[in-house]
Structures are given as C-alpha cells and as structure tokens.
Automatic annotation (TrEMBL):
The lineage of its organism: Bacteria, Pseudomonadati, Pseudomonadota, Alphaproteobacteria, Rhodobacterales. It holds the Pfam family AhpC-TSA. Coiled coil: none annotated. GO terms for molecular function: antioxidant activity; oxidoreductase activity. InterPro entries: AhpC/TSA (IPR000866), Thioredoxin-like_sf (IPR036249), Thioredoxin_domain (IPR013766). This is Redoxin family protein. Residues 6-165 form the Thioredoxin domain. It comes from Algicella marina.
Amino acid sequence: MTRENLAAGSPLPAITLPLLGGGERLLSSPKNGFDWMLVIVYRGKHCPLCTKYLLELNAILPDLNALGVDVIAVSADSEARATEQMAEVSPAFDVAYGLTIAQMQALGLYISGPRNGLDAEAPFAEPGLFVLDETGSVQIVDISNVPFARPDLNWIAKGIGFRRGPMKDAPTNGTYV
C-alpha cells in the first residue's frame, strides 16, 4: 500500500467527512470565527490510548480556542463505533468518522489492518496531527505508526502560540530546499 508524504507548508487535501450529531465538515475549514485548524486523526474505538488522548484534547481545548484554533478529531470508525467511544470522552470539539483508505493515504498516514488493534473491525489510520494556518497551509504535521508516539498537546498549544506570535512571519519549518 502506498502512502504520500504531506509536505509542511502545503494545503491539507480537501476531505469532507460526516460528523457525529449530523452534518459534515471539510477538514481544512475552521468554523465559529476561528482562523486556524487542528485536525487530530485517532485510531478508533479499539484504542484506549486514543480515548486518553482525546480526553487530554478536551482539557486543552479552551487554550487552543483562545489561540483562534478550531479542533476536529477524525477516525475511520463507523458512526456507531465513534458514538460509543465518544460517550466516554464527551468531546467539546467536532468528531468526524468514516475516513477512507484513500483519504488516509492522501494525508500521508500509516494504515494498519484489523490484526494491529484489539477489536478493530477494518483497516484504520494510525495517529496523525495537522495544524493549519489561516491560509489552510500545514504549519505542524506529526505522523506516527504507533498509538504511543504522539505529541504532547500542551506543547502543541504553546507551539501554535509561538507560530502565531513571535514567529508569525517566519517560513514554515521544514520547507527549506
């Protein structure tokens, strides 16, 4: 299976997914007057580390929102599985479901088969994190092939504050050619 690298400074692929609670979202489009976007890709209901990470995301959400950052979490889970997991999280952010293998590949994510997760029913995306600026360009990207290697969300919030503040006119990190 092939995987494309999503380059820092590039736009996030145009991916629209259904939301828990109804409607749909374009992953690269912030809402509610926010101008930056944080997209968290999590493995799914079968992953207890994902539940813990999403609870941490809920806790840091006010800090992210204060920085002008909208947040969405996405997985390949079905609506039923995502609903069941989110009952434990009670997210204050949007949750999308149904990420396809082609969409996972477009985001440059690692993909695992059902045998790589307890109670996984289908191939799923390994963790990914994308921070988009007001132009929709990827400012921060973190891709992992395992659930226990994820960035600390407090540091992500601090980094966004730094990128939006003293480093707002600097080029995107990792784009030197």
